[in-house]
Amino acid sequence: MEYADLIKTFITSLGSIIVALIAAGYFRKSYENKKISISREKLMEQIKKDEIVHYAIRDLRRKYNADRIYIWQFHNGGNFYTNSPMQRTSISYERCSEGLERKTEKYQNLLVSNFSGYFINIINEEMFYSDIHDMTDIGIRSLAQSNGTKSHCSAPIYDSKNMLIGVLSLDWVFSEIPSDMLDDNADFSDEMIFDFIKESQSLSNYL
Question: How many domains does the structure of the chain reveal?
Answer without folding.
Answer: 1
